[in-house]
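fwd from M.: "can u put these together and see what the complex looks like"

so here's what she sent:
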Amino acid sequence: MTVDAATFRNTLGCFASGVTVVTAADADGTPVGVTVSAFSSLSLDPPLVLFCLDRKTSHLDVFRTSGHFAVHVLAENQRDVSARFAKRGDDKWDGLDFSRGNNGSPLLPGCLASMECTTTAIHEGGDHLVFVGQVDRASASDTGKPLLYFRGNYAALARLVTAS
Ligand SMILES: Cc1cc2nc3c(=O)[nH]c(=O)nc-3n(C[C@H](O)[C@H](O)[C@H](O)COP(=O)(O)O)c2cc1C
């Protein structure tokens, strides 16, 4: 017996997350990118992160073969960026200003944080693939708030409280 799909979705929607855009480049340097909330830190030593990609993602093969990817943690004013990379199609990059990281991955401006990664493993995960990467370079803004995702809607951080 397994949980039904609607209950599963509703339950997972209670787990508030940030929103990232994960990018990579194909052998010709053509950029690809997908909005991803299934992102997590994995290991401190070595520094590893992971994200989960639907097998139906248009450019799955680019992520599989590139060997590198970049993760962008979106800021609260980047809902448009999230929507752009959550839309299917090859026009995601139209009119968008971006640079290149040391590993060739496309880097988006104005994000709360970004990480340039080398893919170290790709695991099966049902209808998704789990990409694990070592973080080679990272940068984080000291100010600004994250874009959040909760119960299928975007949300904003109201206030910070100390963890202890
Ligand atoms: C807030 C948000 C979070 C998402 N998280 C994921 C995710 O973790 N993994 C995933 O594969 N798709 C996720 N998606 C869906 C993809 O962004 C969407 O399917 C996108 O169209 C895929 O683009 P492509 O198939 O053109 O590459 C998310 C969408 C939104 C709006």
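replying to her w this: The chain has one domain: 18-145.
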